Each structure stands twice: as C-alpha cells, then as structure tokens.
Amino acid sequence: MTETNEQITPLQAFTPIIFLVVMLACSVYLFGSDSSYGANQIALILATCVTALVARRSGISWRQAQEGIVHGIGVGLGPTLILLSVGMLIGTWILCGTVPAMIFYGVQILDPGIFYAASAIICAIVAVSIGSSWTVAGTLGIGLMGIAGSFDLSPAITAGAIISGAYFGDKLSPMSDTTNLASAATGVDLFDHIRHMLWTTIPSFAIALLIFSLIGSSEGTTPEQIQALQQSLSSEFSIGPHLLLPLLLMLGLVFKRFPAFPSIVISALTGAVFAVIFQPEQVQKLAGDSGDLAMGFVLLKGVWIALFDGYTANSGNEFLDALLSKGGMSSMLNTVWLIISALGFGGVLERTGILAYLLGLALRGVKSVGSLIVTTVVTCIGTNILAADQFIAVALPGRMFKDAYTDKNLSRLNLSRTLEDSATLTSALIPWNTCGAYMSATLGVATISYAPYAFFNLLCPLMAIFYGFIHFALKPASYDLSGPAAVTDS
Predict the structure, then answer these.
(1) Region 141-162 average pLDDT
(2) What's the distance, Cα to Cα, between the start and end of the chain in Å?
(3) I need a labelling partner for 158 at 20 to 30 A (CA). Which of 274, 278, 383, 478 fits?
(4) What pLDDT does residue 239 have?
(5) 155 Cβ contact partners less than 8 Å away, ≥ 6 residues apart
C-alpha cells in the first residue's frame, strides 16, 4: 500500500522529481543512448538520497526511508531471477540453433512487393525470439535500411516499420526487460501479463501491417543481402525445423500456465541439450582451448559458457556476428542494475509519502475507468518526456497506480498492459529519450521523421484508451486473487 504523509508540501514533493529530471537530462546530454548503461543509475541513486534528505523535513528518518528502498527493491527480486534465466535462455538458444533457425525462416517472408509490412514482420519475429528492440534495430534494422536504400524506398517509412516490428516482439517476449519490469512493478504474473497484452497488441499490429501494405512497394527483387544472411546461417549452424522445438516447448509451458522462472530455465537447459546433440562443433568452438579435457567436459564447458556469458559468433560476417553475439546471465546485469535503482527510488517515494501526494494530483480528475486509463497513459508519456528513459516510465507509474486500479475494481493486469501500451511504446518516439536517441542514431533517420510512421507504437496507447471507455477486455480486481496464476503483492 502507498504511504500517506500529510506533512508533505508541494516543494518537498517536487524537489526530488525536479532533481531527477535535471540529472537525467544531463545524463542523456552527456552520454546519449549509452545513458542507461550506468549514468541513469547514478542519477536514480542520487535522487533516492535527495528524497530521503527532503523527507527528514517531514519527520521521516533515514531508517524509515531505507526500509522503503529495500521494500521497493524487494518487489523486483522475483523478476530479477527471471531476467537472469532469460540470459541463460538466449545463450543456449543461439548456440543450439533455435534463434538462427527462427531468423533463417523468418527472412523468407520478405517480399519486395510488401517490403514495409514484411520488414515489420521479420523484425517482430526476431524481437520475440531475443526480447530486445534495440538489438533488432541495431542488427536486422541496419540491414533492412540498407536494402531499402538500394531500392530507393523511404528511409522514414522503413524505420517506422522496423521500430513497429521490433517493439511488437519486444512487448510480447518473456525475454524482454520492459515486459519483466512491467509485471514486476505491478505485481502480476509475467505470462498472465503477456496474454492480457494480446488484446491491444494484436489489433494494433494488424492495423499497422494493413497500413504498411497499403503504402506498399514494388521495386526490386529478392535482396542479395537476405540470401547471403541465410547462407551464412547455414554455414555456421545445421539449420532445420527441429531446432524450433525448444521454442514450442516453452510455448507449451506458457499455454499450460507453468510458472515463468522454471519454464525459462527448463527451456534454456533444453537448448543446452540440443546444442550438444545438433551443434557440437559450435559448442567446442565456444569452449575454446580446453587442453586435454575429455570431449564430454569440452561440451559441458561450451554450454556452461553459453549459460553465463552467452554466445560469441565468429563467422566473418559482421552483420551475423553482431546479431548472434549475445546472451548469458552476464548480459542481464545492467538491466538488473537499472531495475534495482528505479525500484529503489520508487520505494523511497512511496515510503516518504511523496508518491501518495503526486498520485493524488494525478488522480484528481479521474472519475471513471476510461479517465483512469487516460491518466495512466498521459502519466507514462509524460514520464518518458521528462525522465527520458522507458524503464523509469514503466516502474514509477506502475508503483503509483496499483491501488487506484484496485479501487476501480480493476485487475492490476490492466495496469501492466497500459504501462506497456504507453510507456514502452512511446519511448522510441521522443527524440531525447534514450530509446528515441538510440533508434535515430542506429537507423540514421531523425526521430521526428520516422515517428509518424511507427504506426504500431502510435496505435497501442489509443487502443488502450478506447478499451477503457468502452469497458472492453478489462479484467476485474477479483482476478488478481482467483486467477490461474494469482500472485501476492510483497
């Protein structure tokens, strides 16, 4: 529950927020798209300290503030285990050929006659498999932009299609850090959260694909770059439909409502077994110089490296190497760092009563379910604009609005979905946000140029608001206690 403190004044409430905004603005200015890799964490930690100092003016001791910080961080410990296991999953799925197979078959969808729509679909498939919109944009996105340039297609529309597909996959992937963060901040089950997002995500993406298809493109033939990518994949891995079995296993576990953490660990270990059976040469290569170790221990060492440090591709194809060199528990440590910092700041805001004060201001005009969802969307977009980071835009409103949704007899799944519909998806549309800055720099298109064509990102917040006013696809609060994956709020 959110703490209340009648002694909080407007100056005390807004001082930490202003301090954080200034610090984050400096962070983005100095470090650009790299600001999420340490600079923003420092800003959050310092803002946490400022909040504790300000709270002393209203009688909150450091011990009480620290309790709030610890409680806030505690909310994210379960998802932290999931994130670490996701790192394991990515590493072994690349090593065993599951991710390469998904890419190999996914790029076959590309047809020059529907280039924009096909680009969105390809990016969506890969983003679901690896859970990172940034990685997709920085690898497949660059290749697709090059292909578009060779056909004299619009770079702005191509970038919009890439971002639409990348964020579709990122949003629905259990490997995504924002997806895990949204479920953590609201205290809902990860897979329940993903299933509930389908109501807004699938229609929005379908409309976006329709628009991209109507825009169309008919220039060129099948790009040689795609064929070269498939040849490189085939030369590095033994590609076949059987490599998709680990993916099907995980989907089956999700369908059976198996808990997220063991589902991902089981799927990761299945990938390790598949790697030993179907890609032994790649496992040995990853193991490196193993001296006089028996072959069994060499294979064990290779899959063990994939689990904790991910896969490193050395094919000689720079594009393919960048696409496949990732994964492992270590790859998730920066995200864990950022989540701990953000949730710690949210926890001290909550414990000191500042969060309750800001919540009261935000909810002052809320009279209905529709207006509550509008307020959530506006708050998330505003946080993206002011704080310049999607993780903060997910974590802080997620903490703020939990009780408000319960008061309106709404499940927190509705909140977690709205957080993703607004905070996650609009981050790439703001030039000074870390996501907008990264996408612009990576794809070589100004944010203001591609934003009107990122149809999926634009449609999802509107879909969430529309559902709120017509009371469609909204779960009641009773689902949080009686649902098949009911959780308790720590």
Answers:
(1) 82
(2) 10
(3) 383
(4) 93
(5) 145, 148, 149, 443, 444, 445, 449
Question: Has residue 306 got a pLDDT over 50?
Answer: yes
> Which residues lie closer than 8 Å to 206 by C-beta, 6 or more apart?
none
Instruction: Give me 303's structure tokens.
Output: 């899959």
Which value, to the nearest 10 degrees, does the dihedral of the CA atoms of residues 166, 168, 170, 175 take?
A: -130
pLDDT at 112 over 70: no
**Between 151 and 239, whose confidence is greater?**
239
Residue whose C-alpha is closest to residue 172's, from 372, 379, 416, 485: 416
**Block residue for tokens 């000689």:** 316
| Euclidean distance between CA atoms 416 and 376, whole angstroms | 10
Separation of alpha carbons 222 and 226, rounded Å? 8
- Radius of gyration of the chain measured on its C-alpha atoms: 23
In whole angstroms, what is the distance from residue 75 CA to residue 77 CA? 6
3-state SS of the chain is CCCCCCCCCHHHHHHHHHHHHHHHHHHHHHHHHHCCCCHHHHHHHHHHHHHHHHHHHHCCCHHHHHHHHHHHHHCCHHHHHHHHHHHHHHHHHHHHCHHHHHHHHHHHHCCHHHHHHHHHHHHHHHHHHHCCHHHHHHHHHHHHHHHHHHCCCCHHHHHHHHHHHHHHHHHHCCCCHHHHHHHHHHCCCHHHHHHHHHHHHHHHHHHHHHHHHHHCCCCCCCCHHHHHHHHHHHHHCCCCHHHHHHHHHHHHHHHCCCCHHHHHHHHHHHHHHHHHHHCHHHHHHHHCCCCCCCHHHHHHHHHHHHHHHCECCCCCCHHHHHHHCECCHHHHHHHHHHHHHHHHHHHHHHHHCHHHHHHHHHCCCCCCHHHHHHHHHHHHHHHHHHHCCHHHHHHHHHHHHHHHHHHCCECHHHHHHHHHHHHHHHHHHCCCCHHHHHHHHHHCCCHHHHHHHCHHHHHHHHHHHHHHHHCCCCCECCHHHHCCCCCCCC
* Whole-number Å distance between alpha carbons of 321 and 139: 9
Instruction: Indicate whether 449 pLDDT > 70.
Output: yes
Average pLDDT, the chain: 85
Is the per-residue pLDDT at 283 higher than 60?
yes
> What are the backbone dihedrals phi and psi of residue 258, each rounded to the nearest 5 degrees, phi first?
-70, 145
Instruction: Please choose, from the candidates 212, 187, 20, the residue with its C-alpha nearest in 3D space to the C-alpha of residue 124.
Output: 212
pLDDT of residue 488: 36
Distance of alpha carbon 34 from alpha carbon 411, whole angstroms? 35
User: Would you state the pLDDT for residue 487?
Assistant: 39
| One-letter identity of residue 339 | I
Other Cβ atoms closer than 10 A to 301 = 17
pLDDT at 230: 81
Largest CA distance in the chain: 72
Sorted by sequence, the CB contacts under 8 Å of residue 312 that are 6+ apart come out as 286, 325
